[in-house]
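Milestone 3.1: sequence recovery, worked example.
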């Protein structure tokens, strides 16, 4: 069984960041569901994350960053993306953008794009800030299973395949983030989630299909 530690513990963030820096997998609460984290630069840890989730390696993983002003380090920010970032970050919207030339991560599954999000939760933002790089933000469950809403669900599902689970209580969101792709001329909804179609249309001033 995975080690469970209260997310409110004074050493929780430091311990999580240390383990992730060592190539371990750590689970944590977010504003949507519980996530499983590896450092974006650690190829071996990301390969292990794919294996733990039973996810095929051709499917990219979303990445979490600490602050909206970091997005330009990893992605090309179009006017549509900028509007979405201004209105929805921190929050439950993952935005797929074209990656910048120098950014590489096994989490991208060799795609020319990257899905980024700034969660509306202190724990993953503080871990990413301490790491100094993006953190994987995929849900902490086996692929095809219901996303976990508590630390106990994570521990039951993934057991000793992860090194640490930070317990932040029941995830308040309960639904995964909405994923949108803004690499084309118009926004495309990749996955329905917390942020609704009408909210997106209101921000962009046009209908969203």
């Amino acid at each position: 069984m995975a080690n469970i530690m209260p997310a409110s513990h004074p050493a929780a963030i430091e311990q999580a960041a240390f383990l992730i820096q060592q190539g371990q997998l750590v689970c944590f609460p977010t504003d949507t569901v519980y996530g499983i984290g590896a450092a974006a630069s650690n190829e071996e840890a990301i390969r292990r994350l794919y294996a733990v989730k039973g996810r095929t390696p051709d499917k990219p993983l979303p990445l979490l960053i600490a602050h909206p002003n970091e997005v330009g380090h990893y992605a090309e920010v179009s006017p549509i993306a900028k509007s979405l970032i201004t209105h929805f970050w921190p929050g439950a919207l993952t935005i797929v953008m074209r990656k910048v030339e120098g950014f590489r991560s096994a989490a991208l599954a060799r795609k020319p794009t990257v899905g980024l999000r700034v969660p509306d939760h202190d724990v993953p933002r503080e871990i990413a800030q301490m790491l100094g790089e993006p953190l994987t933000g995929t849900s902490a469950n086996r692929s095809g299973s219901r996303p976990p809403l508590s630390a106990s669900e994570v521990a039951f599902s993934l057991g000793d395949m992860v090194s640490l689970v930070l317990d932040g209580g029941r995830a308040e969101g309960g639904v995964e983030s909405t994923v949108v792709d803004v690499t084309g001329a118009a926004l495309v909804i990749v996955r329905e989630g917390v942020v609704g179609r009408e909210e997106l249309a209101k921000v962009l001033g046009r209908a969203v299909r």
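The radius of gyration is 16 Å. The chain has six helices and eleven strands.
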